[in-house]
Amino acid sequence: MEKRVVFRNKVLPYLLVAPQILVTLVFFIWPAAQALVQSFLQEDAFGTSSAFVWFDNFVEIFTSEEYLGSFRVTLVFSFAVAAIALSVALLLAVMADRALRGATAYKTLIIWPYAVAPVVAGVLWFFLFNPTVGMVAFFLKKFGVEWNHTLNGGQAMTLVVVAAAWREISYNFLFFLAGLQAIPGSFIEAAAIDGAGPWRRFWSIAFPLLSPTAFFLIVVNIVYAFFDTFGVIHAITRGGPNYATNILVYKVFNDGFINLDLGGSAAQSVVLMAVVIALTVVQFRFIERKVHY
Amino acid sequence: MADVSIRNVTKRFGKTEIIHGVSCDIREGEFIVILGPSGCGKSTLLRLIAGLEEITSGEIAIDGRVVNRLEPAQRDIAMVFQNYALYPHMTVYRNMAYGLKIRRMPAAEVDRRVRAAAGILELSELLDRKPRQLSGGQRQRVAMGRCIVREPKVFLFDEPLSNLDAKLRVQMRMEIRKLHEELKITSIFVTHDQVEAMTLGDRLVVMDNGAAAQIGTPLEVYERPANLFVAGFIGSPAMNFLQAEVAADGRRLVLPDGLDVALPGAGVPARAGRRVILGVRPEHLEPNGGRADGIRLAVDHVELLGADTLVHGRCGSMALTVRLADVQRIDKHAVIVLHAPPEKLHLFDPETKARIEK
Amino acid sequence: MMVEHRPALTVITHAALILGAAVLAFPIYVTFVASTHTLEAITKSFPLLPGGHLIENYLRALTVGPRDVGATVGTMMLNSLIMALGITCGKIFISLLAAFAIVYFRFRLRMVFFWMIFITLMLPVEVRILPTYKVAADLKLLDSYGGLIFPLIASATATFLFRQFFMTVPDELCEAHRIDGGGPMRFFFDILLPMSRTSIAALFVILFIYGWNQYLWPLLITSDQKYYTLLIGIKRMLDVGEGQAEWQIIMASTILAMLPPVLVVIFMQKQFIRGMTETEK
Questions:
Q1: What CATH number does residue A181 fall under?
Q2: Which of A9, A216, A282, C108 has a CA 20 to 30 Å removed from the CA of C23?
Q3: Taking CB atoms and an 8 Å cutoff, what residues of chain C touch B78?
Q4: Looking at beta carbons, which residues of chain B come within 8 Å of C180?
Q5: pLDDT by residue (tens digit) across A246-257?
């Protein structure tokens, strides 16, 4: 798609793109290049000199049990978040699509958690499940469940998954509902005339038609769980206990800013960039519709 | 008011030449219609005159001034677009005033001109509306108003009526013609609709494949089409074409099935014995008053249109369409005998496709 | 809509929706309740109904501020607002200009620039924190509003959205404008910008939420309390080590931190949904 007419001006277009390009170069491309270079360097203990060490940093992280553990934790975390957020959202969207009365009110009630920051979501759930002041933890104890996510890795993982999935439900709900409402009524009516009940109609008509939306959302949810949940982890578990919730993004932060391991952190950044690029390529199928180049 | 002179204009997009050397002199105050099928380059030609595209070679002059390298704004033209191109966020008033404001015209003069144009176009009540609150015909008028207020030397119209429904189109067509008679501004109007062309134009430029196939008044184009393309394009239903051979004396035509047809006057002795294409319009074939000699048409199909009747059939191996006045009850599979007045026959050269003058 | 008569199913539908909405709202309700009690009540009795200390707690948070943070919630809210608006306006501004250049001009390096902007989509702050921090430090942007805003204002999403919108603007409008005698910037300001209003509004809502909710980047580059955003402040309040966290103040601050984006979503729902579905992230 190209415009038939364009303005003829030699300098103006460069001035117009300049701010965007400047910010991109200074804060995106240059740091990314730095991370790439840094990932091949090893600094000495005093940070005074650095040596080119080829792939040593990568070899080191991929042979480190801690890093591989973090990778596993991230995968479990991402899939759990995506699975919960998608299935709950789909259920609610199907219900909201059915509800003729009050559909708008339900929509408002369900979408607003998306506006809550991940770190705030973390604080909310942290408070509910806090072993000393948390209401839910208190009731769980009454039912004989000893809740302490600061000690129990499984409980910690459960809590961060719930907190992270909580606000993503709203996002998925919105897209599922839009998808359901885009299904022409005549499809459903034709199936009803053929004698299919609501359950059957959903699985044989609505669900297949929703699958592109679902696929798009799976990718978006995984990207979200990988990269946007730093706040949740930082607020609730700080990666613990015993690295049980130490997802990759948290680990990069921790190694770079707390442990000051520049080469290792850079190598991890490079790996993460590879992950984003891979996910973006998958997502590209959807973006392609918008970017006709 | 101004004359427009187009000299050997060509336009190339990359390697493809779209306009192959068109020349045309448009007189002051004339209403010229550029007519042709889609893809013939008629809109491109208009855009070249407007300056929205740059010409590859040739020369365009408006009021004696060569405008080849001038921006559209400097050419003193105004244009009505097919989709009207009204600014959607501006009121009717601001849409009309905008071009004048850009030219830094004093506000009082802008106001005077806008109100005057609105008066002519019966838009005075609608000046505060946004385009989306207007009907198709009203938008069309606003688009014209935007042109009128500029008081340009030339009006350009790019298929401005094609987005309107049939009834409105007829009405707007008459309004445009009326407006032209009032303002007498040189106008160039592009359309693919031959009825629009015939009713609006002082002269037509019939375009075919990037070239001007014929330039002339509507009647000239209808009565003496310069070539096969124009003959086939103008007139509805289209002209019938038959393969024929000029008899040895040059005064008669011999058709494949042994029929022969007299030519008017001295005929075409220069072409004696040569093959030609005979053209005859459906409305010029008439029943032969009960005589048995003439073109015998085996009827395949009859269309009753009320005001007239279209008869489709075959004469030997040749397909023919005939248009008869009023409702004619003709049975399918009947045979009718037809006659064409010699002066209504057209002859074309099969090689050059050009008209053969009798 | 098809008429269907299944009362049982209708009851289930509404029950599920109400339950869903209630579960989603529950954490926030509890937070709100906690923000209206004294610390003692919160830690001892797990109240389920709002208490009488609402004004006291919020006033203290806004004007005095929590212990050990060194800034009032009022100040931190102002910082969050400056950051959110800075990011929102900055992104919209530079994206509009870039999209205008890419759609309405032909120039060398056009496609190079296009891909350069596209790449930013693939490089979230989280994957390049250390070197970006270094750049910000070298540019003396630590502990400044510029540092909070500039690194976050490049936006492929907004640029694509505007590019997409500009492509749907009929060519004839631009041609009519040329015939009217207007130049490119005049076209941009008089025609394109007013026509983009709805897209800008939709993006504004999405980007405001995005900006307000930034956490990792402000965490990295602010060490001076003067520049703390509210989200940073809340996290600092939780970090009390062995001491007792001031839950009533933390909860009041949390409610205040949620308020602006949630209100924006509720009251600008149309723009919000439009923004979500058009940017698709």
A1: 1.10.3720.10
A2: A216
A3: 179
A4: 73, 98-99, 102
A5: 888 888 888 888
